[in-house]
Amino acid sequence: MTRKGIILAGGLGSRLHPTTLATSKQLLPIYDKPLIYYPLSVLMLTQIREVLIISTPDDLPRFQALLGDGRQLNMSFTYATQKEPRGIAESFLIGADFIGRDPVTLILGDNLFYGDSLAQRLATAASKPQGAAIFAYWVPEPGSFGVVEFDRNGRPQAIVEKPEHPNSNYAVTGLYFYDNDVIDIARSLRPSARGELEITSINQIYLERGLLTVEVLRRGVAWLDTGTADAMLDAANFVAAIERRQGLKIACIEEVAWRLNWIDDEGLQRLAEPLKNTSYGRYLIDLLRRSSDDPFSPTVALRGRYRTPSPTAE
Ligand code: DAU
After folding, report:
1. Which residues contact 71 (CB under 8 A, 6 or more apart)?
2. I need a labelling partner for 275 at 20 to 30 A (CA). Which of 29, 191, 195, 224 fits?
3. Is 8's C-beta closer than 6 angstroms to any atom of ligand 1?
4. CB of 255 shorter than 6 A to ligand 1
5. What is the pLDDT along the chain (314 residues), one digit of tens a residue?
6. Which of 171, 154, 9 is nearest to 88 (CA)?
7. Mutate which of 24, 63, 81, 88 to test ligand 1's pocket (most atoms within 8 Å of Cβ)?
8. Can you tell me which atom of ligand 1 is nearest the CA of 174?
9. Contacting residues for 43 by C-beta, under 8 A, at least 6 apart
């Protein structure tokens, strides 16, 4: 069984009008790269190589132009449309054939995660053979999210979508791990009062079956929402601050593929070439130069060995 990935990148983007009147929110930049790179890199860090991207009929061709068929990253990208925003859970109906008999991870195209322990948390969630795993994150105003209520022992009791009077500060993030039953569960849903197939209903069903794990992401992990102009600016400033300080990029998909050994030095060089007049492209080229001399570099951590200097980096 190979876990599949879905990025849901549709919706009307109406909270960002007029900016999103003629383009998709998930194609807008967060600092130095399109928003969709952030959730895509999370799937990659979960070791997911087959990804379905769902968006509106108008926007889908632009995602295809940006990301292609994925072969450049040694991945596979397929595309499907969602005609109307009929709910996040519709992803599993649209994606049923793509998912086949495999487990699946869904990430919302506008969610940004960053933190040291993230890759490990993702691996744990992905390794569950049965049931569902979701992540909860403390926020000061949880009312605009799905909210998880816990009992005294930290066991989830209920999940409520956008409660008027939240009983907890734990918001459900837009990253969901499911076994293959999610397709049948999604088929059984009826639209909610607001006319959507709710992802919260799916999570509630897993909870009732005793098959839902809720992992709390602590403050060492950043989960940023990009729902408003202010939130997008905050996210961009956050990414810029970390990237400038460390000289390392967040969610640079070419770098992630290379560090995971999905592409080799030549592959990275090929991707960098058309971008070489940009700081993004120069960053990719610099990776090849500096990878061999830092024993603590993430390259070593991820690849588990020292890299030999690339001939292209001489
Ligand atoms: O971000 C996490 C939250 O995402 C969760 O806490 C909530 O439980 C979940 O319902 C969702 O809440 P939002 O209010 O953020 O959902 P929104 O309708 O804004 O959709 C999230 C993204 O998914 C957005 O970029 C648009 C896209 N989308 C949404 C729907 C409903 C689609 O592509 N198609 C859809 O049908």
Report:
1. none
2. 224
3. yes
4. no
5. 899 999 999 998 899 999 999 999 999 999 999 999 999 999 999 999 999 999 999 999 999 999 999 999 999 999 999 999 999 999 999 999 999 999 999 999 999 999 988 999 999 999 998 999 999 999 999 999 999 999 999 999 999 999 999 999 999 999 999 999 999 999 999 999 999 999 999 999 999 999 999 999 999 999 998 989 999 999 999 999 999 999 999 999 999 999 999 999 999 999 999 999 999 999 999 998 875 656 666 555 555 433 434 434 33
6. 9
7. 88
8. 2
9. 5, 7, 51, 105, 107
**Distance from C-alpha of 263 to C-alpha of 73, rounded to nearest angstrom:** 6
**Which run of H or of E encompasses 287?**
helix 279-290
DSSP string computed for 29-80? EETTEETTHHHHHHHHHTT--EEEEEE-TTTHHHHHHHHTTSGGGT-EEEEE
> How many CB atoms neighbour CB 268 within 10 A?
24
Q: How far away, in angstroms, is 4 Cα from ligand 1 center?
A: 20
Q: What is the pTM of this model?
A: 0.94
Contact 181, 99 (CB under 8 A): no
Q: From the CA of 79, how far away is ligand 1's center (Å)?
A: 19
Q: Are 24 and 13 spatial neighbours (Cβ–Cβ below 8 Å)?
A: yes
281 touches ligand 1 (CB under 6 Å): no
Does any ligand 1 atom lie closer than 6 A to the CB of residue 39?
A: no
Determine the atom of ligand 1 nearest the C-alpha atom of 90.
36
Question: Where do you find CATH 3.90.550.10 in the chain?
Answer: 4-231
Smallest CA separation from ligand 1 atom 25, residue = 110
Tell me which architecture the domain covering 4-231 has in CATH: Alpha-Beta Complex (3.90)
